[in-house]
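Morning F.,

Quick status update on the modeling queue. The single chain you submitted on Monday has been processed. Sequence for confirmation:
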Amino acid sequence: MNITELIGRYLDHNRRLVVPGFGAFVVKDSGEVVFSEMLQIDDGVLRALLAQEGLGEMECAAIIDRFIFETRHELTSFGYCRLGNLGTLRRMPDSGALRLLPLLSAVPSVASPAATTVKRAEEAKSMAPIAEPVAQPAAESRAASRTRRAAQPKRGVDRFVMLFAVVVLLFAAVAIGYGWYTSQRAQANTEQDDMEMESLRYEVGDSTPQR
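Structure tokens below.
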């Protein structure tokens, strides 16, 4: 049972068909068939169409599950999945959404090799991954902004280190000056005490009675 052909025949006369748990194929007013991942609730239509082909309930569920599995597998492996005459279901690289691309225009039955080559080239081009634009100036701007933001904390740290070093030097100078002043005072006091002791010794010696 080719489920894609069944979906295509149903959409020839109807506006929408939901694949339960996967998405819905919708026919627009222009006749274009699109795919929507927003509609996944089982309305029973697809199961009924398969049942009309003489399949049991379990067989219908198995066919739907297999279709979903194989389609998702090809989308994961290649980024797109061919769905017969419905078109090509493709995962868009920019948004990640699924989009149903229409088939290319059919070539005449008797076509020249050049026409066949052009068709194959166009088909390969349509299936090629879409390269996202490279916003080099914006990337460079963001890189420069990150560099400036990284440099600002570094300059702040350097200033703090310099200020801390100056404070340490000031404290060291004060400590050295204070130590020198203290030592000078201590030396002066010592010398004064020695002079007082010497004077006292002389005074004591002069007051001693002579024989």
